[in-house]
Design a protein that fits this description.
Blueprint lengths: L5 E3 L22 E3 L19 E3 L29 E3 L21 E3 L19 E3 L21 E3 L19 E3 L22 E3 L11 H8 L5 E2 L2 E2 L2 H9 L1
Parallel strand pairs: 1-2, 2-3, 3-4, 4-5, 5-6, 6-7, 7-8, 8-9, 9-10
Antiparallel strand pairs: 10-11
Length: about 250
C-alpha cells in the first residue's frame, strides 16, 4: 500500500484495526473512506500526515478522543495533522471532545450530523473551519463561548435539533449560509440577530413554528434586505421590489 493515495473500504464489516493505517504502511494516503462499518474507536489510526479526507460515516463511534501511547506515539486524530475534511455522521457521538486537543489546524469541513451531540463545544482550535454540519442532533441552544469571532465558518447546518433561539450565532461574522429548519424557532425577531452579518446570503428556516405565521416570507425579507436565497428559493428582483413597496 506504499503508493496508494485513495482507499475505499466502505461496508467491509471492519470492527477494529491496529497499525493498519500508519505512515509506515500508507505513507501517501490522502483520502480514506471507512463508512458503513462497525468501528467503535479511532485508536487504530497512527501517524498519517498526508491524509486530507477521512470519512467514517455510519459506524459505532462514541468518542473522537484517543490517548497518546505511553511512548508518545500519536493515535486517532492526534496523527492526522493535515486533515481537511472529516465526516463522522451517523455515529453515536455525544460531544466533539478531542477536536480541541488534536493538531488539525487545516480542517475545513466537519460533518457530524445524525449523532447524539448536545452541545457545539470544542471547536475553538479549528481556525480554518468553513463548513460545519450538526444537523439531526440534540442541540437546544448555542452558548456564548461556543461560537466566537475567531471562527471562519461560512456554512452552518443545524437542521432538526431542538433550538428555540438563534442567540450567539451572530458571533460567526463570516457566515454566508445557515440552515436551521426543523427546530422550534417561533418568533420573527430571532432573525434580527443576523442583521450585522454582512456576508449572509442564504438562510433556511423551513418547518419551524415561525414559518406558519402570516406573511412569514415577507417579514423575513424585510428584515434581511441583502438575502439572496430563503428556504431554498431564490429571491428575484420582482419579489424584492414588491416587498420594498409595502
Amino acid at each position: 500500500m506504499m503508493n496508494v493515495k485513495e482507499l475505499d473500504l466502505t461496508g467491509c464489516k471492519l470492527r477494529d484495526f491496529d497499525k493498519m493505517f500508519d505512515r509506515d504502511f500508507c505513507p501517501n494516503l490522502r483520502e480514506l473512506n471507512l463508512s458503513h462499518n462497525f468501528l467503535a474507536t479511532l485508536r487504530g489510526f497512527g501517524y498519517l500526515p498526508q491524509l486530507r479526507i477521512l470519512k467514517i460515516k455510519q459506524n459505532r463511534l462514541e468518542s473522537l478522543f484517543c490517548k497518546l501511547n505511553d511512548d508518545g506515539y500519536p493515535r486517532g486524530l492526534f496523527g492526522l495533522h493535515g486533515l481537511e475534511v472529516l465526516d463522522v455522521s451517523y455515529n453515536s457521538l455525544h460531544d466533539l471532545y478531542g477536536l480541541h486537543l488534536a493538531p488539525m489546524k487545516d480542517l475545513k469541513i466537519l460533518h457530524a450530523s445524525n449523532n447524539e451531540i448536545i452541545k457545539a463545544d470544542f471547536l475553538e482550535k479549528l481556525k480554518q473551519l468553513r463548513e460545519l454540519d450538526l444537523s439531526k442532533n440534540r442541540i437546544k441552544q448555542i452558548e456564548p463561548h461556543q461560537f466566537h469571532n475567531g471562527l471562519m465558518i461560512s456554512c452552518l447546518k443545524l437542521e432538526d435539533n431542538s433550538l428555540r433561539s438563534l442567540a450567539n450565532i451572530e458571533r460567526l461574522e463570516r457566515l454566508q449560509a445557515i440552515h436551521a429548519g426543523g427546530n422550534r424557532l417561533a418568533e420573527f425577531w430571532e432573525v434580527d440577530r443576523f442583521a450585522d452579518l454582512v456576508y449572509l446570503m442564504e438562510i433556511s428556516l423551513m418547518n419551524n413554528p415561525m414559518t406558519r405565521k402570516p406573511q412569514y416570507r415577507m417579514n423575513i425579507l424585510k428584515k434581511l434586505p441583502n438575502l439572496i436565497v430563503l428556504d431554498g428559493k431564490e429571491i428575484l428582483t420582482d419579489e424584492r421590489n414588491r416587498i420594498d413597496q409595502t
